[in-house]
Amino acid sequence: LADCRKKIDAARKTLSNARSQLGPLAGQLAMAETELRALHESHKQRSTSGKTKVTDSRHAQNTVGWWKFEGAADGDFLADSSGNDFTLQHITESDPPAQPFRLNSGRTRGFIIPRTELNPRPTDASETATAEPSNRNQQAAEFQQSASFGYLGTRTTQEFFADTFSLECFVHFDAARRNFNQTIAALDGSWTFLHRGLDDSSFELRLLLTDRTGHVHDVSTSKRAHPEGPAVADTKSRPMILQLGHDYFVSLVVGNQTIRIWSADLTTATPLQLFQVARPQKDDQPVQLAEHSPEAMFRIGNSDGTGRLDGLVDEVRLSRVALTDRQ
Question: pLDDT-based confidence at 30, cuts 50/70/90?
C-alpha cells in the first residue's frame, strides 16, 4: 500500500509538471490558429481583388423571377432563370403570341452585350463574374399587339408583393402615340410600369402605384413634380423623354422613402439617367403597397388586356429589395 501511494504521488507530480508545460503551449496554439485565419482571409481578398463582388441585396435569394427569353419557343423561352419556377404562359386572343427575336437580325444591337456585363450577379456571394465572349444575350421577346392582345403572365406568391422592390429590363418600342399606354410589366392590384406616348416619336416612362387603400398614385417622368403635389422630383432629376426605335435599359426601384426610375439609351451609348420622386405618403408615413391576392398575376407586355406593347422586352428581373444607386 505504501508503494502504491508513492507511485500515485509521483504520477500526480508528473501530471502537474505536464499541465504547467501545457499552459504556454495551449496559448501558442491559439495564437497560431488566429494567425492562420488572418492569413487565409488575406489570401481570399487578394484572390478576389479586381473581380465583381456581390452584396447581400444582390444575392439570388432576393430575386423573385428572372426571365431571359433564351431558347426555343417550345423550349426554355418562357422559363424563369431564377430557379423559383415562375414559368411564363402565353395570354392571347387574336394578336400573335410573344415570340423569340434573334438580336443579331439587325433591328436592334443594344441588347447584345456579355450577359455578365449586363447582370454581374452570381448566384452566390462567394462567386465572381467573368465576361466570356460567347456568353452573350442572344434573344428577346417580341410583342406584336395592335387590335387585341398577345402577352405573357405567371402566377404569383407573396414574394411578388414586397413593399420595396426593383424591376430591371431591356426595352425597344416600335410604336408611340400621344397618351397611348404600352405596359412593360404589371402586378395585378399593385403596380404598372409603362411607356406612355408623348407623340409619334417619343415617350415617357410612367408608374401607376396602388396603395393598400386602393388609391392609385401616378408618377410621370416627363414632369418635374409629382401630379399630386407633395412628392416633388429630386433637384438632380430632369424630365426623362425617350425616343422611339432606340434600345434602352430601364429600371424601377421602389424604396421606403423614394421611387427611382433609371434609363440608359443603349443605341447612343448614353450614361444612366435618374428620375427620382418621394414615395407617396399618408399621415406623414410612406403608403403601403397592396397585399397579395391569390388570383393576382405578374404580366409582361400588357396589364389587363389593355396597354398593348409593340416591340421588344428582354432580361426582365424582379427583386424584392430596393437596389441601391451603385447597384
Answer: low
CB atoms closer than 10 angstroms to residue 109: 13
For the chain, what's the residue count?
327
Q: Phi/psi at 204 (nearest 5 deg)?
A: -115, 165
Alpha-carbon span 182 to 244, nearest angstrom: 12
d(CA 202, CA 197): 6
Q: Determine the Cα–Cα distance for residues 58 and 52; give it in Å rounded to an integer.
A: 12
> Which of the listed ranges 11-25, 124-138, 159-173, 300-314 does the model predict with the highest average pLDDT?
159-173
CA distance 266 to 273: 12
* Cα–Cα distance for residue pair 66/102, rounded to 1 Å: 19
Within the chain, where are the H helices? 2-48, 115-118
Q: What CA–CA distance (Å, rounded) separates 125 from 58? A: 9
Dihedral sign of CA atoms 82, 83, 85, 88 in order:
positive
